[in-house]
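=== Structure Prediction Worksheet ===
Name of assembly: unnamed complex
Input type: mixed (protein and possibly other molecules)
Chain count: two
Listed entries:
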Amino acid sequence: MASIEFKQVTKRYKDGTVAVSELDLAIPHGEFMILVGPSGCGKTTALRMVAGLEDISAGEILLGDQVANDIEPADRDVAMIFQNYALFPHMSVYDNMAFPLRMRGFKKPEVMRAVDDAAEMLGLGKLLRRKPSQLSGGQRQRVAMGRAIVRHPAVFLMDEPLSNLDAKLRTQMRTELARMHQHLGVTTIYVTHDQTEAMTLGSRIAVMRDGVVQQAGSPHELFHRPANSFVASFLGSPPMNLVRGRIADGALEVKGASHPSRVDGRPGWPGEPRDVLVGVRPDAWRIDGHEDPSERITIDGEVEVVEDLGSEAMIYFRSAAIIAGADSDSPVEKEDVLVARVAGVMRSSPGERIKFHAELNAVHLFDAHTGEALLAPDDSMSRNGLGAALGGPPQVELEH
Amino acid sequence: MASREESVVVASAGTQAAHPHAALESQPSIRPTPASRAVWRWAREIARYAILVVASLAGIFPVLWMVTVAMKDQAEYANERVGLPDALSLSNFSSVLSDPQFLKYVLNSVIVVGVAVPVLTITSVMAGYALARLWGRAGIPILFVFLTSELIPLPIVAIPLLLTVKHLGIEDGTVRLIFVYSVLMMGFAVLLARAFFRSIPEELREAARLDGCGELQIFWRIMVPLARSPITLIAVLSFILLWNEVFLAVVLLDSVNDRTLPLGLAEFQGKYSSDWPKMAAALILSTLPTIALFAAFQGRITSQFSRSTVRE
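=== Predicted Assembly ===
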């Protein structure tokens, strides 16, 4: 059984820095688990601990049923794909792929068969005689994968394998990786800082920050029900808008909004006074002109930047009230810049005044101090997306 | 081209009136025309080549001259010091080569250097690798020792070295030299090897470990094959330096029979005192190995100097 389990795993360096803190994570056999997070969050360290390349300061890592803490990397039956591929420069592609098998004492005919199979799967057949320096980035990447595959290991460990490739190649290789996983079904831990990769590749994602897992679950779960504001703003591109607000006396006052919204009696909303962060996904903004303080938050916005992507456009705006209140010299507060995703047919230009609305049913709510999630919209609400952005009547009413 | 220059001139003229240093700038500056630019470029090239040719000739002239001297006989040489020989006579070379004393010196050098170079190459490469990747912080004091050993001038160390080998009871001159020569070049060799191995990404080691390699296997199967350049550099440079080494040979050798070539040549000066052509022949013969080696490995050595990094 090639399952992996982290039990209270901690990595502490000699100077005191804690790279990974009490990590608990269970990865069943065959799962494609993605560790994602910003640089320095501990994801690579966690991966390397599974490989045996880093010592474990506390806790246990189980491979299958065995505690693997003290097992040599070579004996763990794991194969790793490094960010820089780590191919042996003086060996041919064939020798690179054959190396792990030869080191384990496989006989020549077996080695040849395994390498040829892997080469065929990865389209490397014609490149077997070449040296790594004669290959392109994508080809080297595939050789690195081939070297991992030939061993038929119990676990694949991938450390940002696509980050050195150009955007187009990355998309291509992502599908190949997905295909490979479908075909081989090997338990995999994949580390990346790219949330798009995380959302598209994994069956499960674990978002990490400063050595601590923020949330682990399916991409859908993490996207629609983030456990805290960090996860909410990490996944999704452009990231979720997080606006400061305060709930008091049954009213929600949002920084920069045209008017407070009434929230008393709304199911799930906090009753006591609270500082909150209101989370609005870029595609949740409506510009249909329908203002209603009991159902919506309205921000009278001034467009600052428009990114026209063809089929859709990103409109970056700030509340006109905030702009008016600030000096012309003071720096733009990053948290005041909001983004809306609209359909491509919308034409908008900087300086334009547009009223953006967010349904109270469609926003996320987080505690302003801890970041903890207080409220998430129902799935049915968030399905509305782009269609409503065109300014048509909100689909919400139909489903009532 | 012309219009650009024109407009620049016009522009500078326009600013003259307002500029406080208008008087200084009233003369239009001499702008190079395309033609004069080409002439300058050509002149620079010629100057460059001229300097290189002169320097090369200055460098190689003594050697060439020695060859001409070696092919004359004493009488001819006395008549005409500089100038081409009457005949391309190799008689001096053959008489040197049939001198048993000369051959003994050659043999001594071959033995001493022939053993010292492989010993020091293998040891320093292993030490360099260990210091680069296996020892971590603990290796720094050792590194320091190697570094400082390179800074100490030989004369200071010579007597202590003599005392040491005597103390160790090493009587045989050849063995003494092998011993000392192996260590002599260590500092530079270890530093070079270490620098090289540090340039190899740690990930290659990790990948090899995951593939089932132990430390020794990583060293022999991956590190050494990658280190062909520095290894060649260490071996060839050590050879050249040790082949020509004379100072320690003087200090450490007792018997005439143990003498290495450089030392022997010095003694030849007395033997062939007025026979300069023969001396020249002896000198040329003794430098042949080093020239041959350098010529053979020149490519690899210079590539190591220009340090193309290991690409993955």
